[in-house]
Amino acid sequence: MEDVFAGEEVAALKAQVLSAKSVVVTSHRSPDGDAIGSSLALKHILSAMGVPCAVVMPDAYAKFLHWMPGHEEVRFHDAEPEAASALVSSAEVLFCLDYNAPSRAGGLMDAVNQACANAKSSVVMIDHHQEPEDFADIMLSDSSTGSTCELIYRLLQAWEMQGALDSDLASCLYCGLITDTGSFRFSSVQPSSHDMASALLATGMNHSRIHSLIYDAYRLEQVQLTAYALSQKLEVFPEHRCAVISLSQDELLHYNAQKGDTEGLVNRALSIEGINFAAFMKEDDGRVKISLRSRGSFSVRDVAAEHFNGGGHHNAAGGACEGESLQSVLDRMVALIPTWSDDLQYDD
Fold it and tell me: How far apart are CA 198 and CA 211, in angstroms?
């Protein structure tokens, strides 16, 4: 695949950023480790260039990501909608990281669209998801890459800003690298992923501490919720090599669920021997949010796009069904599973 960072537009973008009066970095709704990591990493790079910028997120993210350097400066649309929207819509340079369509920006969608329509704004998309919408002025899209943090690292190299790579910047990049590659387990991992990890480790960042902060910070109620989900709500369809977990709002409230508490549940279902496709769904603010995972040749991105208003990657995707009950979405999923059965009969 062509190197999207090798073109003249990337060098021109650096010059434009250096002269810009307002630069804003955004990411997608329900931001994850790659969304936050890439956004804060770009902020560190811009700061090293002497360019002030604002990081604006659609909504809050899980507490296990609050350790990242620069976190305290992030602004949230759900907390201050008018101010956040104004920052985004009027930005001279607007970065859209880890999402490939304005609709993925949640409450910031209208502000992103306004920036796209503003002749005085330059909108830059940096993303690794498949089938991006053609909405930005500069589209730095590479779906063969495992994380947006890897793309930000390539931007760092293209801009010849390697001197800015200190332990704080490296920590942000490492967070997105390990969370979106499943700690280097997923098929999207490339030799360059490990080359990047080596360069990040060379800064002296504490990679062991980062792993612990992300993966070893479970609250008691979160552990209890996980136990309940696996013992009471897990449905396995061995003949179809599928597994599904669903959680209602009442069940989440019973365990005082917080953002991030259900992270990884879908991977627990996929880890069952013989399972090639797993789904997790939960009620979430008037919608049903769905996470899909697969191993091998079965494309969950196609499932998400065709049936659940979503998208993503070949083996990791998601969607959301607005205005539907959890039971109706679960029933639809269970009805669809036998139609995929023949495509799931393989050993990877």
Answer: 16
